[in-house]
What we know:
Elements: H1 10-21, E1 26-27, E2 30-31, H2 37-40, H3 43-49, E3 51-52, E4 55-57, H4 65-76, E5 81-83, E6 89-93, E7 96-102, H5 114-117, E8 121-126, E9 129-133, H6 139-152, E10 162-164, H7 176-182, E11 186-189, H8 201-209, E12 213-216, H9 217-220, E13 224-227, E14 232-235
Parallel strand pairs: 1-3, 2-4, 4-5, 9-10, 10-11, 11-12
Antiparallel strand pairs: 6-7, 7-8, 8-9, 13-14
Helix pairs in contact: 1-3, 3-4
Amino acid sequence: PAYLNTSFDPGRQVVVPALARAGIKELDLVVNSHPHEDHLGGIPAVLDNIKVGRYVAPPIEHVTPQALQVQQLLEEKEIPVNYIHSGAEIKLDPAVKISVLGPPETLFSGTRSDTNNNSLILHIAYGEVSFLLTGDVEREGMLDLTERMQKGRTAMEISADILKCPHHGSSYSICPEFAAAVRPRIVVVSVGNNNFGHPSTETIYFWQEQGAQVLRTDQEGNITLATDGAELSVAN
């Protein structure tokens, strides 16, 4: 991720070249977790260079200039757009179940960061392997998610083998109840040089104490997780 007010364009300089090296010219789906500029900054370059089948994002209450730029580009390219919340499913392949666990239908208001806590949260299951992608959700959102899943559904829907660490591993992303429900084997921290102190040393230690292997993009570079539904491979 990168802020748009810098000269670094993560889409043009990182994502598009990585897709090219992998021989990927088309994406069935592009997901934006929430409309903060460090999560939108690379999307225009991807839309300009890669054929995209569909775009999904959480409901946006306040459209930022960056979000407006992306919306205009989506309209120009006639890419279907869905703004979704908890309870929806994304259908790509019959063998892959993508459940939308957040944000809740009634969006957060009055938390430390409503935009972060209203991040799109996806649970992806393929065979025996599952992933939980959390955007920048913070402690309030993590606790709410845990309580909603345990009350309304089976706890299995939140457990995952691989967790994308919430909010770049910030100090606001420690929630013991959430960790106990997810029980990940691998925690991936998406982070680079920043002025926010991400990831928090406390957060890294927290996940290691839970028995998870922690992988960081600032140390490992691009991290690729691949599965056939039974085995899982990790490469960078």
